[in-house]
Amino acid sequence: MKTGWVAPADNFKQVSLRHLSEDADGNIWIAGQYEGDRSGPFPVVAVCVSRRKINFIEYEEKSRSLVKNYAGSITVNPLNNQVAVTFPRDNRALLFDSSATANQKISASQDICGVVTVGKDFIFSNGRGDISTQNRHLTHHEGLAFDNHLALSSAWI
């Protein structure tokens, strides 16, 4: 796992860690927002291993430009240890294996923000009323706008 990126300590006063998800090994995955200088990418995805130290995730080159220092939501799929993080300011979600954070995949959807697991898959919602997987559109709800808080009823599972 590529972790360990460290920013100057004074930069962290402008980081807001807002979203948490636990993986099968008990590690806590964190997504947040950085409201400081936006001239470069600031990592807003981290993992807390053994409940001791927070390690920020290094993005692959293809992923760096998409984050815009703002993560909308995060979840870990307990069946396959895949992590999904949404970045609504860039209309994308980043998916990767929690053990490596390598081979990051990008899924695009306008204003994507909510994410939840169903089986071995992820379901995403957006601010335009759409619900989809990373591979296909499922439904549209005219006049609704979903935010980052997403849960599915048993009717969807």
Q: Characterize the overall form.
A: globular
Residue windows where pLDDT falls under 50 for at least 5 positions? none
- Find the CATH superfamily: TolB, C-terminal domain
Q: Please state the CA-atom Rg, rounded to the nearest Å.
A: 15 Å
Q: Termini separation (Å)?
A: 31 Å
Q: What share of residues are in beta strands?
A: 35-45%
Could you say which structural class the secondary elements and strand pairing correspond to?
A: mainly beta
Biggest sheet, strands in spatial order? 1-5-4-3-2
Question: What helical percentage do the residues reach?
Answer: under 10%
The domain tally reads 1
Number of helices: 1
Tell me about the biggest sheet?
Answer: 5 strands, antiparallel
Task: Specify the CATH architecture.
Answer: 6 Propeller
The level-1 CATH class: Mainly Beta
H-E order: EEEEEHEEEEEEEE
Beta strand count: 13
Task: Please state the average pLDDT score.
Answer: 80
Which topology does CATH recognise?
A: Neuraminidase
